[in-house]
Fold each of these.
Amino acid sequence: MRVERVLLKDYTTLGVGGPAELWTVETREELKRATEAPYRVLGNGSNLLVLDEGVPERVIRLAGEFRTYDLKGWVGAGTLLPLLVQEAARAGLSGLEGLLGIPAQVGGAVKMNAGTRFGEMADALEAVEVFHDGAFHVYCPEELGFGYRKSHLPPGGIVTRVRLKLKERPKEEILRRMAEVDRARKGQPKRKSAGCVFKNPPGQSAGRLIDERGLKGLRVGDAMISLEHGNFIVNLGQARAKDVLELVRRVQEELPLELEWEVWP
């Protein structure tokens, strides 16, 4: 186990965030020790806005055994989702294609039920192991209340590993599906971002609503509404969390309805 003081801007895909005590744990016993004081969990740092003043709690990052995987067995929650998507395709196993391009670790993808219009994380789950109240518990997906970009894990629960629901299919068919998903996501920005900022309202697109108000390119400091996709805020270099929050406030003022955050502030 490694404990160090860091700036979380170096660990988030948006590139913002203040100081924290980072606990990198590699075993189940280390995880038990790390959770003996108030904590938060850092996955791959996507879909996350960390305030400039930082985080007072311990920040836990899963490594070691939590990053090992067996596509036909248990998959560690610290495993990168893009890696799994590619490995499954090479193995001729279908079920993850709709998650192509999501820059998450498995645990974070489970917690927020990450997905695209082609599929959600919950669709690919057979079982989820969650650490809470000092012990490891296994749940079936139906017990975790998955919905659009949400789940209902036990309070303080940390996803530690999952079993995936994959089916054998011809590799060519899997690759065609992945190419379809990839084409649909080509309009997303390449600059630093946290992913989509807002959840789509029922029957509408948050990005389209923002675009229709002419808000692409709106900027506060180095935080800007992406020119490629209205539902992304990008970091042009030195953006701070306060810039992002002010930009979100200005966007909300211009819209006919209040949008719900998809990024976790």
Note: Helices lie at 28-34, 81-90, 106-111, 171-184, 206-212, 241-254.
Amino acid sequence: MRPAVKRLTSEIECISRQKVSRWRDGHSTEEQDQLAVELPVALEFNGVSHAVMLATPHDLESFALGFALSEGIVARREEFYGAEVEESELGVTVHCEISSHAFLQLKQRRRNMTGRTGCGLCGVESLEQVIRALPNVPVATPVSVSAMDKALQELATLQPLNRLTGGMHAAAWSTSAGNLQQVCEDVGRHNALDKLIGVMVGRELNFQQGFLLITSRASVEMVQKAATVGIASLIAISAPTALAVKTAQDIGMTLIAFARGATFVAYAHGDKIKS
């Protein structure tokens, strides 16, 4: 039986209000600004602490599921039995229950990742854990330029937390026609992607029919997380890294960066893009 979920977060709790002095042309005015909230979020699996990340306290159940899948802690949704969110003075703990088989494999990995915003490799114990083996991604529907343009325009209007704070990353899933099915936000780009993966899997949406959009750079960790759940096309608004490009080339992933509507750079498998 899955444990009950204790919901503690809302959009309001993801925003902090702060008095500021705003200067224009040598003159200041007292105003209220809105800031993105980041809290320590501890992920526990079967009672054992595994990772502590700084994250936005929103969609934490989906975050835990997506993290478990994208990091290979569980191989499929059925191995993740549920999550309970607990708040304390120090932060938030997400208590996850996974299958005994998955937990045994997790203990054997002995991976302890104490993370911070924008860091996906803190606490990794060996070089082998950095560049993990990835399967070739499934053959997906080609990405069309018109669909990419449409999705990017829509994405700019579907980031409510970023619109209020200016401090959020987003990860979004678009259909092959350019219609966004889901957008997730977080102060951390890895966290936003994990939340998206968790929501997608929870709703049984298909990773092969569409493409992934991220508002950050395309680092190798983002490619790894996407590939682990079978995403074949990744589109980033910012730059890729050399290792991300090599990894995408090796596993058959279409990797596009510097996406500005119909203007972009294809770094891997550009032959799968249609005009």
Note: Helices lie at 60-70, 100-109, 127-130, 145-155, 160-165, 189-202, 220-228, 242-251.
Amino acid sequence: MTSLLRLGVNIDHVATIRNARGGDHPDPMRAVRIVEAAGGDGITVHLREDRRHIRDSDLDTIMAGAHLPINLEMAATEEMLKIALRHKPHAACIVPEKRKERTTEGGLDAAGQHNHLAPIIGRLLDAGIRVSLFIEPDARQIEASMHLRAPVVEFHTGRYAHLFLDGDNAGVEAELKRVADAAALCAKNGIEPHAGHGLTFENVQPIAAIPQLAELNIGHYLVGEAIFIGLDESVRKMRTLMDAAR
């Protein structure tokens, strides 16, 4: 029997649209309700240092009212650690964060930042929060994640998405193999592999077909498509494509 691939929906960019005008519309909590009804398996939010989309008050509301598990994407800083420990989401995904980047540009260097990450991960785990590290699909980073005791990693699929968009078939196949090999390595060593970044209706199925992957986290594309077809239909269509790939 093929395992179900979970869909985590990142609703950050509902808040981006709201923040463009100020006020309280569109409401990220309304997006949470739609995702819950449409077949999403979790809600992802990234509370950035500059609060460019999700704000602290949004996190308060979502944590209090959501029925799905919350995955808090966070930088490895003392401020974000304190926020995570206060709210205790189901999961905390540690991501690299640069002040001027438009979106997360690559995976976390878990190997190079071991000494900085270890105490943060330890405190999150001690609080009962499931820690995920957003990394490149690379054996060195997976080994580092094992040493850091992370139960989950999420592979950055941005390179795959760019190659797909460029029509580089050989590059796409090579990157798919890299993700598949990394997912198999994780499964062999007791780490649950997830994936996300740049996934669309057009490119999701080859990634979704990788059997060891347990979850995809998708946000910007789904919110963008919601402008044309509605968030409910956007989530349902992605759910259908993922299920068909399995």
Note: The longest strand covers residues 130-135.
